[in-house]
Amino acid sequence: MAALPAQPVIHEVNTRVWLRETGRRLGRELGLADVPKDVWDEITPDGVDAVWLMGVWERSPEGRAIALRNPSLRAAFERAVPGISDDDIAGSPYCVRRYEVDGALGGAMGLVAARAELDRRGVGLLLDYVPNHVAPDNPWVGEHPELFVRGDSDDLRRDPDGFLDTGRAVLARGRDPFFPPWPDVVQLNAYTPELRHSTVEILDHIGRFCDGVRCDMAMLMTNDVFERTWGERAGNRPAEEFWTQIITSVRHQHPEMLFAAEAYWDLEWALQQQGFDFCYDKRLYDRILDHDAASVRAHLHADETYQRRLVRFLENHDEPRAAHTMDPAKERAAATLIATLPGATLWHEGQFTGRRVQLPVFLDRRPDEPPDDDLRSFHERLLSGVHHSGMRTGAWRMVDCVGWPDNASAASLIASCWTGPAGHFATVVNLSDHPSQGRVHLPWPELGRGLWQLTSLLGTDQYERSGEEILDTGLYVDLPAWGSHLLSAEV
């Protein structure tokens, strides 16, 4: 597999659900090695650079049993899938018993076959890694207590929900600094040399199967966060950051391996400095969902080098479905925006067809939902158009969009452009529920002051405009609520 592009387009697929639905459609049970070629084509539409097969590792029977006994989880399962049965509950993919491919998916040979199918399409493969914790029946729990945050009998008596007696040692349950412990996992100790060595070994093993890893809750392993969470229990704070040591060591064996961090709490920059190629841009997601265009625009004025190492998304398995949180027009506008920003983009299987139910990751079955064929067609045009244009191989910048004294609606417009060997491209999005007008100042004097040809990458529209007017006063745009332009420009 060739190296992934500098700003990859990633498609997240819930592996067990996808295989189960495919098997039901074909009338037989499937492992990864049995997936027909046309089904691989369905999850690798034009413009996708990598597939993240979420949840391939062996899940914990003990963790599943804990989930089955948890009333709040059972209620959430029932809300998502009315009539859900125990047979549909596989347990959490982030409660990992072993980093071996689940036998229900076809084991290691199934994953090798899956990677080969993706490779034939020029598409990379991403897998999960959970650095903070393991399942209570993970072999390390009984064999290597030195890898974990330790407690004692007093801790167990005082906080039975926060500690686990293995018979050999009292170990802490996994947690982050802001919430109670998770009942189905055991806390690894980011400070210990033994865990760091073992982590490198695990990631070396994972790296033989894939082109990159998405690291769950990566910020929990930074020295500052770990110290805030565990204090003296963690032991002496090491001089070197966990991720700096891990990523540097793994890349001796896998120099092209991509590391993407699930990251929150404004720690994206710190994690980039510690070696991550990409970090979740949760802040942009929140601003698109809950704030106005000014907030989004302020966020996008960050340094371009920093933005190129963010992961933009409108949904993933941890967030509500975009079709549930946004009306269709807003969803299309937001998708156009993030697809044309610098950085990686993450798209969630079912997002293209308008699924509305956020499925708990514990479940193997989801409700049937009718596909939105118009939404699917829009996303196909968007991803394909951006990909084939080559725009994201150029230099990106925000551009000004101004109004006039009696019309302030331009404040709802967000405009940016790409300039490079592939050409000149502009995106203008109206992030509001009302029509907006403005003039976009495009920084392209090299196109001259004659007539410019502007062509939509999402349709067949073409416009002829005066270069003199564009350069002097700006390109006039008039967009309906949640409208957008994605244009290439030439003379």
List the helices and strands and how they pair.
Layout: E1 9-14, H1 15-26, H2 37-42, E2 50-54, E3 57-59, H3 61-68, H4 71-80, E4 96-101, H5 107-120, E5 124-129, E6 133-134, H6 139-143, H7 153-158, E7 163-165, E8 170-172, E9 186-187, H8 193-207, E10 212-215, H9 223-230, H10 242-253, E11 258-261, H11 268-273, E12 278-280, H12 282-290, H13 293-299, H14 304-307, E13 310-313, H15 322-325, H16 328-339, E14 344-348, H17 373-389, E15 395-399, E16 401-402, E17 413-420, E18 423-430, E19 436-440, E20 451-456, E21 462-466, H18 467-472, E22 475-479, E23 484-490
Parallel strand pairs: 1-2, 1-14, 2-5, 5-10, 10-11, 11-12, 12-13, 13-14
Antiparallel strand pairs: 3-4, 6-9, 7-8, 15-17, 16-19, 17-18, 18-23, 19-22, 20-21, 20-23
Brief overview, please?
With 491 residues, the protein is an alpha/beta fold.
Shape designation: globular
Distance between the termini: 38 Å
Sheet with the most strands, sense and barrel status: 8 strands, parallel, barrel
- The value of Rg in angstroms is 24 Å
Q: What would you call the quaternary organization? A: single chain
User: What is the mean predicted local confidence, pLDDT?
Assistant: 96
> Quick one: how many beta strands?
23
As a percent range, the share of strand residues is: 15-25%
The strand line-up of the biggest sheet is: 1-2-5-10-11-12-13-14
Protein structure class:
alpha/beta
- Approximately how much helix is present in the residues? 25-40%
Uncertain regions: pLDDT < 50 for 5+ in a row?
none
Number of helices: 18
